[in-house]
Structures are given as C-alpha cells and as structure tokens.
Amino acid sequence: MPLAPDDLDLTLKRTFGYGSFRPLQREIIAATLAGQDVFALLPTGGGKSLCFQLPALVRPGLTVVVSPLIALMKDQVDALQASGVAATFLNSTLDADESRRRLRGLHQGEFKLLYVAPERLMLNGWQDNLRAWQIACLAIDEAHCISEWGHDFRPEYRQLAKLRRALPDVPAMALTATATTRVRADIIEHLKLREPAVFVASFNRPNLTYRVIPKDQPLKQIIDFVRKREDESGIIYCASRAAAERLAESLAGRGFSAKPYHAGLTADERTRHQEEFLRDDARIVCATIAFGMGINKPNVRWVIHHDLPKNIEGYYQETGRAGRDGLPGDCLLLFSAGDIAKQLHFLDEITDEQEQQIARTQLRKIVHYAESAGCRRAELLAYFGETFGVDNCGACDNCLEPRETYDGTLVAQKLLSCVYRIQQNSGFSVGLNHLIEVLTGADTDKIRRWGHDRLTTYGIGAELSRSQWAAVGRELTRLGLLTVAEGEYATLALTRDGLTALVQRTPITLTKPMDTPKAKRVSR
Ligand code: ADP
Ligand code: ZN
C-alpha cells in the first residue's frame, strides 16, 4: 500500500526529529518505496543516510546497508537505536558470540536495518541468509568505491555484483557523494541497476570562495592568510606527513595554535589533536588527507592546500569541510609547476598500468583546474557533470579579479606548428615534454634519433622557459586546439580547430601563466 506523503513527514518528525526534508530526500525515498532502483548523488552532509533509513522503517522487511566505513557503523547504529529503531551491524569488530546472537535476531526478523561491510556479504552461506531473510531493500553507501575511476576504489565492492544476482528482485539504492559521469556509469553497470531513478543534487557550495595563487614562499603566504583570520578555525592540507609536521611546528613557533594530524602520529595524539580542534582549542590543523573522514566541525572557516591535490574529487571533499554551517568559507590552493613534477614522479611508481593512467588523467584535470582562467566554481561543477549557468559566480579569484591576458597568437602558432611539423615528418605524435624540447632547441637522444633537430620549428621557442611552454601547451589543450591522447605516453595532436587556427592565423588570447611570480615575464 503506497504511503501518503504525510506519513513520511510524520516519520521524519517522530523518529528523526526533523521538520522538513533536505533537497531530493523526499523524491529519493518515494522512488525506492515505489520499488524502483535508485542512484543518488548528494554532496557530503546532504543527508544520504536518511534516504535509506526512513524507508527502512516504513516498509516491511529488512534493509541491508553496505558500507565500507566500519569505524562509523557503530555510531550510526547507536544513534538509530537511541531513536528507537531496530538496527544492528555486522563487521569484523564483533566477536563470534556477538555475531551469532545478531544473526539469530536477523533470522527471527527482529531488525529493520542491518549495516554490513562488503567483505562479509561474500562469506559462505551469506547468500542463503540473505535469501532467507525478507530483504526489502539493498542500499549501497559510498557506491563510488565500486569504480576504479573513483578516488576510493575497494576491490571487495566489485563482489556486490554477485550479491545483486542473488537478489535480483530486491530494489537497490546506490548512494555516493562523489561521482563523475564515468563513475556514475560504472556504479549503474556493476550494480546492475535496472532503469534506476537518478537523483543528482547540486554540488555547488555557494558560501565557499575558491582561490588559487602561485606558490612562492608558502610559509609566508600561509601566515599572511592566517593573520587576517585571527579567531577562525582552518585546515591546511599537505602532501606528506613530514610537511604537515614541519608546517605545524613553524606555525606554532610563531604563536599560532596549530596541531599536526597524520597517520604517523599515535592514535592518542591524533584523537587529542582532533578534539582540540573540535573544541576550538587549536585553531589550525596541518593535516594529510588522513584528516577529515567523518569529521563534522561546522565552523571550519577556511581550508588551504599547501600542495597540489591528486585529483579534483579529493580537492572538492577537502575544501568541502569549510563552511558546513552555511557561513562563508575560504578555500585557497597554493600552486606551483614544481608540484606537478613531484606528482608525476609519484605516478611513475604506480605499477598497475591502468591505475597509473587513471591517476595521470586525474592529475591533468586538477592541473587544468589550477591553471584555468575560468570560473573555479564552474570548473568544479563541470567535473561532476553539472552546468553552472551563471557567468560570474562572484566568489572565486577568476570571477573577482579576472586574470591578465596577452596576445598569444605568436607563441600559439609556434607550438601548434611544431606539433604539425612533427606529425608530418615523423608520422607520429609526441608528448608535451618532447615538443618543448624541440621548441627550445634541446639536444637529446630522441631529437637526434628522430631528426627533429632538422625541423623548421626546432629551437624557435627560446623566448619562453620550459615551464612557460608547458603552461601554454596546457592552455591550448584547454582551449580545444590540441587534444591529449592517453596511451602508454600521453601524446598531443592538433584538433580540427587547432589546424584551422594554425592555417588561418586566428588571433589567440592566452592567460598569463599560473606559475611562480618569476615566470610572469612572458614576452608579448
Ligand atoms: P551524508 O551521508 O550525505 O554526508 P548524513 O546522512 O550523515 O549525510 O547527514 C548529514 C547530517 O544532516 C546529519 O547530522 C543528519 O542527521 C542531518 N540531516 C539529514 N537529513 C536531515 C533533514 N531532513 N533535516 C535536518 N537534518 C538532516
Ligand atoms: Zn567564479
């Protein structure tokens, strides 16, 4: 029997104590209760849990919630039980007796909600259990873990496809806070969602301001930033434990209440630092990405990235910890070409070829974001497949102070013609590095072997440094004049527009590069 909308409001109020639904919650709940498969993409804090918890209460049978976050299961279940909901969890933290007790309860139909780690579901006998219990709904939380294209791939999530086969008629829900179009398709495919109702909430965080500045003297830049925000709490993300440690020390040495947080500290230290931060005793946490999972501090006013993040998902999640209370938050990324090189170096160490290629693509996208002269918000949202329909967001550096541009026709012509010449002469395309070596007239084995020192474009680009050329190359890619083919090596090719621009000598406006201040001497 379908529920009247009023019944949902009543349960929302009685059991959860909330007066109204958050965006899309009602629609998601209605779809699953109607027996449809559901895919829901809501930003962190958007209220995903309620989307499977509330329906679990109003429909007959058991809702199974798959979640990778074992550490958070107990909290969630405790909170549900405190509200009078028959919920339980099963994971590796329970001893055999306790597990058995809970299983018995499940067989007797005592529970409405079961939280379970994905690896559990695959143990022998589990599929029989699941068939024996009257399962009303299968909710997969953090569903992006199923995709290698997500930032948090968990191989055990792939097993869920089997589970799905065992329970073909049970309505499934996939929920996540991070999914690009590609990850979305992966989730729908691997979980065999049947014509799912798809819900995508806006990822826009209107109260956050995004800025990227060239990393020059990071400590000084950070101190300048923090000085202007005496009483505010913030997080500084660093690429390594050592960097987080050093930065916290330097800041503390200058009188700021800063604490480090990373996986190299003891559990005690981590808990202590985290609590000091939550209580506002420590204003600043210098952290690696280990910090943040499950942290809910509403009044974080700013987030700085001391180093280039690995991917946009991570960046979005980390900056998303600012301004949870809806009040303004500032996000600052310190960017340097040197950081790209460092990240590329890490990438070389990834042995799995596919994994490496994915990481490379993701890195290219975050670099693209950092160097872009366009609206940061629009760029972030575009990454999540969302169109931001406003020209000027009024809350990012590029909208507030548009970047300086210059007539880049000549440099663009040089670079594009060099791509063209190499392609014509050698019959293959090359990567950006080699291209720049040809342009700047370098003397390398490859150049001699391939005869690229005999090209008319050899050495015509001495006026720019290599990193400046690299920035130009990336901008031409952003402008759609070049395209990157991912393979064993990422190689560059002219697009149709690129060829047209080359042949017709179309004027091209370029942005002054986002590089260390020294590099601002771009010749005009
Ligand atoms: P997510 O998993 O999407 O990050 P949660 O499910 O943990 O988000 O919900 C985030 C917070 O919002 C929780 O404290 C939750 O109790 C609260 N919340 C969820 N739905 C509502 C609602 N309709 N009204 C008010 N608060 C809500
Ligand atoms: Zn903007």
Automatic annotation (TrEMBL):
Family membership: Belongs to the helicase family. RecQ subfamily.
Keyword Cell wall biogenesis/degradation assigned: no
Biological classification of the source: Bacteria, Pseudomonadati, Verrucomicrobiota, Opitutia, Opitutales
GO biological process, one term: DNA repair
Name the UniProt record assigns to this protein: DNA helicase RecQ
Segments forming domain Helicase ATP-binding: 29-197
EC category: isomerase
PROSITE patterns: HELICASE_ATP_BIND_1 (PS51192), HELICASE_CTER (PS51194), HRDC (PS50967)
Gene Ontology, cellular component aspect: bacterial nucleoid; cytoplasm; replisome
Cofactor(s) in the UniProt record: Mg(2+); Zn(2+)
GO MF annotations in UniProt: 3'-5' DNA helicase activity; ATP binding; DNA binding; four-way junction helicase activity; hydrolase activity; metal ion binding
SUPFAM superfamilies registered for this protein in UniProt: HRDC-like (SSF47819), P-loop containing nucleoside triphosphate hydrolases (SSF52540), Winged helix' DNA-binding domain (SSF46785)
Domain Helicase C-terminal: 218-367
EC number: 5.6.2.4
Domain of life where this protein originates: Bacteria
InterPro entries in the cross-refs: DEAD/DEAH_box_helicase_dom, DNA_helicase_ATP-dep_RecQ, DNA_helicase_ATP-dep_RecQ_bac, Helicase_ATP-bd, Helicase_C-like, HRDC-like_sf, HRDC_dom, HRDC_dom_sf
Alphabetical keyword list: ATP-binding, DNA damage, DNA recombination, DNA repair, DNA-binding, Helicase, Hydrolase, Isomerase, Metal-binding, Nucleotide-binding, Zinc
UniProt-listed CDD domains: DEXHc_RecQ (cd17920), SF2_C_RecQ (cd18794)
Catalytic activity: Couples ATP hydrolysis with the unwinding of duplex DNA by translocating in the 3'-5' direction
Membrane-spanning residues: none
